Amino acid sequence: RLNRTELASIRIKEEPETHYYKGDALDLTGLVIEATYINGDKEDITEGYTTNPSNGDVLNEKGTTSIEVIYRGQRTSFNITVQEVELTGIRITKDPNNKSYIEGQELDLSGMEVTADYNNGKSKVVTNYTTNPVAGTEVTQELEEIVVSYTEGGITKEATLNLEAVGITNL
């Protein structure tokens, strides 16, 4: 029978996820602590401990953070890294309602949807992008593409939209 009356030490036996992005919640799933008792007995602990920060806390500090683990008065820790969420690219996820023009018509980009992609695997639809040329520009036969730009966190990404402009010819 284990003598669990006097705990000698604890150590991290299995670390949970240690790589996060700003805004993620700390997830201690998989954390296993090995408790060693004065008589030499060892036991794996998967619950009943506390941590600082706590499981589920939102991580907002970029860099390396020490997670302190406390079990029955004994303390140990492990490190996690928290990375800044950064823009990695943009995509045109819905074309504008009109992509074919007759020379002289105004460029109308209504209906266009632009999605920003991030290094944490997430994406979101954005509206504060810019275009070159801008909506309302008179379409010429030479206009074949629109360059869409989006900037966030000092990072700018671009995507290209192809257009079709037909010149007016004498019949």
Overview of this protein structure:
With 171 residues, this protein is mostly beta strands. Helix content is 0%, strand content 50%. The chain is built from no helices and 15 strands. It has strands at 7-14, 19-21, 32-37, 42-45, 50-52, 63-71, 74-83, 87-94, 100-102, 113-118, 123-126, 130-132, 145-152, 155-162, 164-166. The chain has a four-stranded mixed beta sheet with strand order 2-7-6-5, with no helix packed on it. The chain is rod-shaped. The mean pLDDT is 92.
Secondary structure: elements and pairs:
Blueprint: E1 7-14, E2 19-21, E3 32-37, E4 42-45, E5 50-52, E6 63-71, E7 74-83, E8 87-94, E9 100-102, E10 113-118, E11 123-126, E12 130-132, E13 145-152, E14 155-162, E15 164-166
Parallel strand pairs: 2-7, 9-15
Antiparallel strand pairs: 1-3, 3-4, 5-6, 6-7, 8-10, 10-11, 12-13, 13-14
